[in-house]
Design brief:
alpha+beta; Hypothetical Protein Aq_1857, Chain: A; 6-stranded mixed β-sheet; 2 helices; about 35% strand; globular
Length: about 130
């Protein structure tokens, strides 16, 4: 089980952490219900001690915290940082996602196929 960062994502996170003044923080990632496809990625800087049920990974010098439920949906994912003409942001490449919405922020796994999203089609989570 693991979640990893690309070198580019790790560098961007290190810069964010340094500029924010966090000393021992990491990236917390989790999955929440919502979005067009039923599940949405969430991310936040977390400087608290990990919960007893958290899994902790380290990738390119950055700690990643994920709860034991979310890892079911995100195991094997790689978080990248991409820039395009609209700006930059983190993008998650999730091998468990079998369906995604147009904007890429929500997804379905085999377990959720056939379950309706928030609007039944089209991208409404942007």
């Amino acid at each position: 089980m693991a979640i990893t960062l690309s070198e580019r994502a790790a560098q961007e996170l290190k810069t964010l952490l340094e500029e924010s003044g966090y000393q021992n923080a990491g990236l917390r990632v989790w999955v929440a219900g919502g979005g067009c496809s039923g599940l949405q990625y969430q991310m936040a800087i977390d400087d608290a001690e990990p919960e007893e049920t958290d899994l902790v990974f380290e990738s390119h010098g950055v700690r990643i915290y994920v709860d034991s439920l979310s890892i079911r949906y995100m195991d094997g994912s790689c978080i990248d940082y991409v820039e395009d003409m609209f700006g930059g942001g983190f993008k998650i490449d999730n091998p468990n996602a079998v369906n995604t919405c147009g904007c890429g922020s929500s997804f379905q796994t085999d377990d959720e196929l056939g379950m309706p999203g928030c609007c039944g089609g089209g991208c409404c989570c942007g």
